[in-house]
Amino acid sequence: MRTNVKKRIKKTPGQAVVFAIAFVIIAFFSLSYVYTLAWGFIAGLNTNDGLILKPFDFPEKLLFVNYVNIFSEFVIGGVNFGMMTLNSLWLTLGGAFLEVACATGLGYVTSKYRFRGSKLIHFVALLIMMIPIYGNMPARYRLVYQLGINDSVAYLITYTSGIGFNYLMAYSFFKSVSWTYAEAGFIDGANDFVVFFRIMLPQAMGPISALFVIQCIGIWNDYQNPLLYLRNMPTLATGLYLFGNEANAAGHLELLMAGTMVSIIPILVLYFIFNKALLNETVAGGIKG
Amino acid sequence: MKKLLKAISLLLGIVFLFGMFASCKTVDPSQDEGSDAISGTVEVYYWKSGVQITFLEKLKEAFESEHEDITIDLSGASADANVFFNTIDQGASINTIDLYIGTMGAFWNRTEYLEPLDDILDYTVEGESKPIGEKISTVSYKSDDNRTYALPWQESVTGLVYNKEMFAANGWDVPRTTNELIDLAEEIRQAQLKNDGDTVTPFIHFANGYWKYLIEPWWAQYEGVEQYNNFWAAKYVAEDGTVEQPSNLVWKQQGRLEALKVLEELLSPDGSVYPESNSMSNTDAQAFFTNGKAAMMANGAWLETETKKELPQFEIMRTPVISSLGTKLGITEQQLCDTVDYVDGVTQTKPSGVSDEVIEQVRTARSITFTEAGNFHVVVPKYSDVKGATKEFLKFMYSDEGIRIMAENIESMPAAKLSTGEDVDTSSWSGFAQNNYDLQKQATFIYKRMNYALFYMTDLEEAWATQPASVFSNSNPASRMSAEELFNMLYNNMTGSRWQKYLIQAGLD
Question: I need a surface site. Which of B6, B95, B172, B202 has the fewest CB within 10 A?
Fold first, then answer.
């Protein structure tokens, strides 16, 4: 017996007009994004002078070699494009994983367990989010350098606070999950860790994946923090920012454009892999009665 | 197990808690004398501007081959011009830079963090006949305590770059005086030449402009180099010889008005300046210029390296002599032109009716060239832990061997000359660079001097608070000002309570 039949919903004339208008607007909006990406790709095939003099004209000659040259010419402080990509990868994946993992753990514990200080932790987490970033940045800068975790993989430790928007999301989600699941686990002999990893966490995989992808996108695009703390290990975003300043001085705008287009490929791949998790959430049922 | 986990969590919490206090201990960087170690790694910050880093890489290579126990680290080079100001007062615990090579015009208000470099100036490289101080000709960085905290490393030529091919194709002569330049600009406007649909204009510039490379020499031509330098010391010398310092009357030097008048005549007529010049970046304007959209552009010796192109069809002309100097000296425009031809060596015949004294004044005026050497410095943080090694590198950089390496790779004369007095080998240089070297050899350089508190303790970084070029060429006629109006406005900005504010900021009240 088929249980999943799509029924065609008949629209009224008014609804059809609204849908048509909405379709046109969204199509136009989408085309503008596609045009921007296409322009960026074609700009990478142009010359520096061509980009300045006639930025919106099709190049007289398509220089595909620009997309090859970025791997040799795009060098910042002795670090080439490949190394910058590697730096972006470990910082993005490591930072996003630690950030989300710590936030998930902290959100779960403070929402589900009563212990001395749990409310204080929640209060402090909210309070810290209210402090303007310019208030704590100088202190953070000094702390990172005094601890000697700048220009090092150890910088990832700064992603382990567990506090921030991710914590709020995790806290809210776990607050909405019924404790009955856990009780069922305890009855079957599971301890707190088993309940967390095998019962609660799988239910949160949807939102956690979404947070992970969002965090990845944020860290991948962040040029400011690596610029401050990873000067000798520039990421792609930092490299593009610095090269952008130098490209203006060194007459290589075309390499900047080519480098920018290539740099978005990894994050696009990540999005295509995880887009279902971003857009859909699934909840595993398990409660009777 | 639970107790063990609790203990570990508590321990981690304590570690993080103490980590928060890691930055509490501070050492005043201005009291930190660092170390004179003569071995180790010297971390260099280089400002990646129009001058490429290649010369530093070659210097590093040559230096390290002779000094096995010293490594020069160039990985910190960047295009960020503010690194010096953002890092110099942070101290050794955060700032690991041992040598700054870049632009830092207002370093004078940070000399407490800098190492004096007088020992470099007094040092004579083995096999050479002169100390380094005598090889550095242009710029002096003596501070109030008579110590030198910075050295110049580049002596760039600036001026009016013109398109030689365009000039030759249209029969235009290189102007000798500002009146000839004004006439030439009019001729170019009338010609209505086309380039790919655009009308070729006499000039192009960008938002912050490089026109000071013309108006400041014109100002110095009219007033004399000494009076120009007196401006940067806010030193007013009255006709009866009395001296007032600081004095806002330096903003009323007649030479400033004369220079503004010339610029107004050049830029205000419609069609004088390429459209949207006032909103362009320097690289955009340079791209348009080198593609023939304008005949002339105020620029500098770095044009070739900055555009990454060989520019055989471009050249920096010798700065036209301001015609009002002729009036001041009591000679006609024709006599002034003849005198310029004579001092340039175009003719061997002395101009008729012109005294030797006037000829010499015109000769000096003709050679006056603005250089950015006043902005390009080498400084060493006082708290560096390898000051000895850093100074060894600087001694090498200013040795004849270092000078030759720099000249070959910058394609320009560094700020230090060879001890033998001979020219560097320019055979591998481009035509544009060789012409710049010729200009450099005959130049009487003027530069922005920031060593007076009125300038380095305040925001008075330029001689012009408002960009004259954008005022005269503004596309909105209502926003334009005449030269007199701008001149009076710039002076009025330095009177009354505003003048008092600057004096207080500079500690001169």
Answer: B6
ipTM, two decimals, is 0.75
* Alpha carbon of A251: minimum distance to chain B alpha carbons (Å): 5
Question: Looking at the complex, does the CB of residue B9 fall below 8 Å from at least one CB of chain A?
Answer: no
Contacts of A143 in chain B (CB under 8 A): 19-20, 22-23
Q: Which of B386, B409, B442 is the last residue of a domain?
A: B442
B14 occurs within a structural domain: no
Reading the block at residue B486, the tokens are 């701008």
Backbone angles phi, psi at B66, to 5 degrees: -100, -10
Residues of A in contact with B77 (CB under 8 A): 77
> What tens-digit pLDDT sequence spans chain A (289 residues)?
455 555 666 778 888 999 999 999 999 999 999 999 999 999 999 999 999 999 999 998 999 999 998 888 888 777 888 899 999 999 999 999 999 999 999 999 999 998 888 888 888 888 877 776 666 777 888 889 888 899 999 999 999 988 888 999 999 999 998 899 899 999 999 999 999 999 999 988 888 988 998 899 899 999 999 988 998 899 999 988 888 877 665 678 898 899 899 888 887 887 788 777 666 654 444 554 4
Place of tokens 């903003």: B251
User: Is residue B435 in some structural domain?
Assistant: yes
B284 — contact with chain A (CB < 8 Å)? yes
Among left, alpha and beta (phi > 0; psi -120 to 50; other), residue B127 is left
Distance CA A46, CA A39 (A): 11
- Run of H or E including B485: helix B483-492
pTM of the model: 0.83
Output the domain CATH number for residue A174: 1.10.3720.10
Phi, psi of B376, rounded to the nearest 5 degrees = -95, 110
Cis peptide bond N-terminal to B312, omega within 30: no
- Comparing C-alpha atoms, which of B204, B210, B214 is closest to residue B285? B204
User: How distant is the Cα of B157 from the closest Cα of chain A, in angstroms?
Assistant: 18
Q: Which residues of B touch A79 (CB under 8 A)?
A: 75
Given A53, A142, A246, which is nearest B23 (Cβ)?
A142
Contact in structure between A138 and A152 (CB atoms under 8 Å): no
For A248, nearest residue in chain B (alpha carbons): B283
Q: Other C-beta atoms within 10 Å of A157: how many?
A: 15
* Helices of type H across B232-314: 254-267, 282-290, 303-307
**φ and ψ at B196, to 5 degrees?**
50, 45
Minimum-distance CB partner of A52 among B75, B93, B284: B284
Residues B480 and B401 in one domain: no
Q: In terms of DSSP bridges, do strands B294-300 and B201-203 run parallel, antiparallel, or are they unpaired?
A: parallel
Q: A48 vs B19: CB contact, 8 Å cut-off?
A: no
Nearest to A173 by CA among A106, A231, A257, A230: A106
Kindly determine whether residue B306 and residue A242, on different chains, have CB atoms separated by under 8 Å: no
Same domain (yes/no): B377, B361: no
